[in-house]
Amino acid sequence: MSADDTPRLDWDSFARQGAEIAAWGARYHQTLSERPVRAPLTPGAVAARFDAHPPEIGEGLDGILSEIDDKIMPGLTHWQHPRFFAYFPANATPPSMLADFVAAILAQQCMLWQTSPAGTELETRVLDWLRQGLGLPEGFQGVIQDSASSATLAAVLVMRERALEWAGNRRGLAGRPQVRVYASDEVHSSVDRAIWVAGIGAENLVRIPTQGPLRAMDPDALRAQIAADRAAGFLPAGVVACVGGTGTGACDDLKAVLGVARDEGLYSHVDAAWAGAAMICPEFRTLWAGIEAADSVVLNPHKWMGVQFDFSAHYLRDPEPLVKTLAIQPEYLRTHGKDGFVNHSEWSVPLGRRFRALKLWFVLKAYGLAGLRAVIRDHVRWSQALAETLRADPRFEIVTDPVLSLFTFALKEADDAAMIDYVNRVNDDGRIYVTQGRTGGRIVVRFQVGSFACTEADVRLAGEVLREMAR
Ligand code: PLP
Predict the structure, then answer these.
(1) How far is the CA of 466 from the centre of ligand 1 (A)?
(2) How would you classify the pairing of strands 235-242 and 216-217?
């Protein structure tokens, strides 16, 4: 390209390079298990491979794949690696990658029904398929959010507005009673952030003590706290419950907690970002027994269902309070002369929306619910078997029993420094990747099985590495 060339939309190169990228991507995944899971941690090393100034003259994309191999690959932590046991999984299956490619090609803006009737209607349809797969009652309506954090923010905003009789958005929060939201310590930090962003204030996220083997919120303490807050002039607004908390997989007793929320007239939101995917298996649904009483539920197919980021499924028992909180309709966002459609941008904080429904459609079409159930069941079984192996080894103690495929453990009699040292040794070795956590005031290793590329042999190898590094 010369300096005076204006950019062309070169579809012939696009077709050739698209095919090259697909072949390169398949090779990457087929050889992934040979790479260390986590990138070596040398801050600044990747940035140093790139010029400090942008290219003035365009040079096209030929050669870009070898540049990726040289400059990008060494700085990647491989989330799709079969021996990624850290955090929670973020699975990208081939059908979802292809769907995202199609979404990029069509480049739809699905903010209103009229700006993408197909995007809007497919979103409603596939989320209803998923609702059926999860065993959620008819009547729950779904919307795709970019992340569980966004769904939780939307729910917290509804809590605030509903409690303030819809005056917060109009008049602000000054001079109004302080809104309060209740959750246990086991909820994800996205709840804290939603509280900050909603202007509620961290001190008004009231932590309710937990009890029992699943570290569930104490419903009596919740009820007592709400009563005490009312007496003190606060305005109780909502409860955030968790099913599969991030640290240890804690699960609230939804029947009890949502019962208190209902009795007290509070809006309820359930964060099942990780564990929700497993609810496609009927035998795991005891973990969220009572879910039908929730006002709002979020789960992340982009974690454990093979639908790559960004795809959070947000279900509402009644979308009306959400729409009342978030809908904004200047003239240019109105659709005149048509009835019976939804504008999904009225259900979320961002206005713009990609055509994400394609991803769930492709994944369900390719694998079916049965295929997805088989993957999740294997993960749970393999993880629980490893927990038993470690339990039988006198050097280890299981700190929290497996919830689905997540458990935590520690080296017996190791202090925090020794545990951090252990986690670093395990991760520096490169064969597996785990994360540390803190539970009961001590550092533990969090171990979860969730990569769609993982096999039983990978989990056995993980057991060998964990034991080898404990010597
Ligand atoms: N909730 C739970 C329980 C999580 O574990 C996480 C992330 O791991 C989130 C919420 C946030 O998810 P997202 O990245 O989709 O916002």
Answers:
(1) 26
(2) unpaired
Decide: helix, strand or coil at residue 460: helix
Beta bridge partners of 269: 240, 296
> Which atom from ligand 1 is nearest to the alpha carbon of 275?
3
State yes or no: pLDDT of 5 exceeds 70: no
Q: What is the pTM of this model?
A: 0.96
Alpha carbon of 148 to ligand 1 centroid (Å):
5
Residue type (1 letter), 170: R
pLDDT score recorded for residue 428: 94
Domain-embedded: residue 84: no
User: Which tokens in the block code for residue 80?
Assistant: 């799709």
Distance CA 419, CA 466 (A): 12
Domain co-membership, 237 together with 215: yes
Which CATH number is 401's domain given? 3.40.640.10
Residue 91 and residue 303: Cα distance in Å, rounded?
6
Of 179, 171, 189, give the one whose Cα is nearest residue 238: 179
User: Across residues 68-88, what is the average pLDDT?
Assistant: 96
Q: Mean pLDDT, to the nearest integer, of 6-14?
A: 87
Q: How many domains does the chain contain in total? A: 2
Q: Which two tokens stand for residue 189?
A: 């930090």
